[in-house]
Amino acid sequence: MTSSTTPAPTPGSVALITGGTGGFGRALATKLKALDVTVVLADLDSERNRQVADELGCPFVVLDVSDRAANAAVVAQVEADHGRLDAAFLNAGIAGKSRQALDVDEFLKVVDIDLFGVVYGTEAALPALRRAGGGSIVVTASLAGLAPLATDPGYSVAKGGAITFVRSMAARVIDENITMTAICPGFADTAIIDGIRQTFIDNNFPILSAEEVADAMIAAWTSGEPGAAYIVQPGIGAVPYKFKGVPAAKTATGETAGVPGALRPGSAT
Ligand SMILES: NC(=O)c1ccc[n+]([C@@H]2O[C@H](COP(=O)([O-])OP(=O)(O)OC[C@H]3O[C@@H](n4cnc5c(N)ncnc54)[C@H](O)[C@@H]3O)[C@@H](O)[C@H]2O)c1
């Protein structure tokens, strides 16, 4: 997926971005607005966040993604104000900062926002996407969900969970013309790396721009493969991660056992 080959979203489409006033959210909103997409930014309530949305020319809605009911209320507001929802970018997230080997309070907080925020956002967006005749959910996960991040286990668990959620949900909604994908960026230049940016600079370690990640998010919307997790890394762009799969069970006579049809996606059980 590259920006030069990416189909553009249909002009007049409506997109919601959670964590919308952060680094990726701003870059994505700027690009989508230039493509004539109506962009609603949802984020925590602050004067700064309202001002960012104002400067971008986007409507702002207050949302704490860890509040399940609030996710539904925000989607209802988007539909009421703009008539439809075509794409939900479930992008809000925090990283842990604790230096303890295991800080369970922080772990739970990160999982609440970075994983359950995605589950609640999906629950809220699906009915609206169905009403629009289909659409897309793009989850901002992380490379830390594919490779363990020893400095932040809660973040790795939450992002890994978000990727697995996308992969398992994608098959359930594809028949409704709804595509779910995950974006898995490496380190990128936004506020979330404020505490470690200098280390990257000192070690001449390449980091992504927010714009590169935003390009991958748009490509995931318009041409993403259902259930794909797109790695975004400096120098390689956005590429789908190839999951290895697991060994299949063998029958008593040594043949490979296929999963029974009734347990496959789309079957009525
Ligand atoms: N920058 C990176 O290196 C990097 C790499 C991989 C993945 N990510 C992920 O990208 C996403 C966007 O992060 P970013 O890099 O733009 O950082 P950022 O800190 O600039 O933006 C994160 C945004 O999420 C919002 N947010 C935090 N908690 C929230 C909550 N409970 N409800 C609603 N909004 C909330 C923040 O207010 C902020 O606007 C996050 O999910 C992050 O984990 C970032």
From TrEMBL:
<comment type="similarity">
    <text>Belongs to the short-chain dehydrogenases/reductases (SDR) family.</text>
</comment>
<dbReference type="InterPro" id="IPR036291">
    <property type="entry name" value="NAD(P)-bd_dom_sf"/>
</dbReference>
<keyword id="KW-0560">Oxidoreductase</keyword>
<dbReference type="InterPro" id="IPR002347">
    <property type="entry name" value="SDR_fam"/>
</dbReference>
<dbReference type="Pfam" id="PF00106">
    <property type="entry name" value="adh_short"/>
</dbReference>
<dbReference type="InterPro" id="IPR020904">
    <property type="entry name" value="Sc_DH/Rdtase_CS"/>
</dbReference>
<dbReference type="GO" id="GO:0005737">
    <property type="term" value="C:cytoplasm"/>
</dbReference>
<protein>
    <submittedName>
        <fullName>NADP-dependent 3-hydroxy acid dehydrogenase YdfG</fullName>
    </submittedName>
</protein>
<dbReference type="GO" id="GO:0016616">
    <property type="term" value="F:oxidoreductase activity, acting on the CH-OH group of donors, NAD or NADP as acceptor"/>
</dbReference>
